[in-house]
Design brief:
Layout (H helix, E strand, L loop, with lengths): L23 E6 L3 H17 L7 E6 L5 H9 L6 E9 L5 H20 L3 E8 L2 H6 L1 E3 L2 E2 H13 L4
Parallel strand pairs: 1-2, 1-3, 3-4
Antiparallel strand pairs: 5-6
Helix pairs in contact: 1-5, 2-3
Bound molecules: riboflavin.
Length: 160
């Protein structure tokens, strides 16, 4: 798989838009909290590194990834917020819950993004086991939170 061949945090930071006056919603699911906290740290530090002000990063938690869609909508409907970054970790179990959750979140945050015309970033790590999730939260495949924040900044730079 292509993603196995590169570090997900190895984004191109050239020509990113100025985000010093941009306001971000950072939404973090509490299931697998140790891992989502690491994703959140990566996203937060990336926004700060590129000029966002701490007071312009509104951090909220939701119980599980399924709740990311509504959480994103509540943030996106605030006209002050320019972009929402959704972070969660869904690990495959014995049942198909992971499929249902992941599809629901993908559809839900897509709808929110299109309804409010602002970036709502899909930072959902979906893996077969916990190790694979850690590999994507500061491990051998980078930090998906960093990539999600970089994606939000990139999307804010798109002009019509
Ligand atoms: N939420 C996650 O963010 N990651 C998970 O891996 C996860 N696994 C779940 C497994 C089961 C069987 C259930 C019922 C829920 C799980 N959730 C998980 C929580 C889900 O996103 C949501 O918070 C709850 O279903 C309540 O709506």
């Amino acid at each position: 798989m292509a993603s196995a061949l590169k570090n997900l945090s190895d984004y191109n930071s050239d020509n990113l838009v100025d985000i010093t006056e941009k306001k971000f919603g950072l939404l973090v699911a509490e299931w697998n909290k140790a891992i989502t906290d690491t994703l959140c740290k990566g996203a937060y530090e990336t926004l700060i590194k590129h000029g966002a002000k701490p007071e312009n990063i509104i951090r909220n938690t939701v119980p599980g990834s399924f709740e990311l869609s509504l959480g994103a909508q509540l943030l996106a409907q605030n006209s002050d917020i320019d972009a929402v970054i959704c972070l969660g970790v869904v690990i495959k179990g014995e049942t198909k819950h992971d499929d249902y959750i992941c599809h629901a979140v993908a559809q839900g945050i897509t709808q929110v993004s299109l309804k409010y015309n602002k970036p709502v970033i899909f930072g959902l790590v979906t893996t077969n086991n916990e190790q694979q999730a850690w590999d994507r939260a500061g491990g051998k495949h980078g930090n998906k939170g960093v990539e999600a924040a970089a994606t939000a900044i990139h999307m804010l730079g798109i002009s019509a």
